[in-house]
Specification:
CATH class of the largest domain: Mainly Alpha
CATH topology of the largest domain: Arc Repressor Mutant, subunit A
Order of helices and strands: HHHHHHHEEH
CATH architecture of the largest domain: Orthogonal Bundle
Strand content: 5-15%
Shape: flat
Radius of gyration: 29 Å
Number of strands: 2
Number of domains: 2
Largest sheet: 2 strands, antiparallel
Length: about 170
């Protein structure tokens, strides 16, 4: 079991960071350590804050080893956009000459960087943020198969002439 010292100064510092830190994840980390220092069980703290017990234990170890400052940094997962390498060029191009439409922005991005960006539709009627796409097989010259058309509905005249087999 990880022991958390609970001096009055440390608890006051945790409480202050819990309420005043600008990032909500860091506030939650401070709350987890604060509740544990006040005697709450790790599983109860995890359930209250929506963490796993392992996550709470990780925060407690970080606090034990580095104090409050060890709880402040956080890493956000994900990858860096390929457009990040072209940020200076893009700013120099778009600030003096802003785009008027999304289509114009797409064409200028491709012309400047060779990277395309487009909008994706997650569900009917809603559009998500722009996503980066890479060249696909159709960009290299292959074509997708055409789907056959659905048969047309019969005319009312031919429906009346229908006689079921006995």
């Amino acid at each position: 079991m990880i022991q958390i010292p609970g001096s009055a100064e440390e608890l006051n510092a945790l409480r202050s960071e819990h309420f005043h830190h600008p990032h909500p994840l860091v506030q939650m980390k401070m709350a987890a350590v604060q509740l544990t220092a006040l005697g709450a069980d790790r599983s109860l703290v995890a359930a209250m804050l929506g963490f796993t017990e392992t996550t709470v234990r990780t925060y407690l170890k970080a606090y034990r080893d580095g104090g409050i400052d060890a709880l402040k940094p956080f890493e956000v997962g994900g990858s860096t956009s390929a457009l990040a390498a072209h940020s200076d060029t893009l700013c120099a191009e778009f600030e003096p000459h802003p785009v008027r439409t999304v289509k114009e922005a797409q064409h200028r991005l491709i012309k400047l960087t060779g990277l395309g960006r487009g909008m994706t539709i997650s569900s009917p009627g809603s559009v998500t943020a722009p996503v980066q796409y890479s060249p696909t097989s159709s960009d290299w010259g292959s074509h997708t198969a055409k789907w056959p058309r659905f048969p047309r509905k019969r005319s009312p005249r031919s429906r009346n002439n229908f006689s079921p087999r006995n």
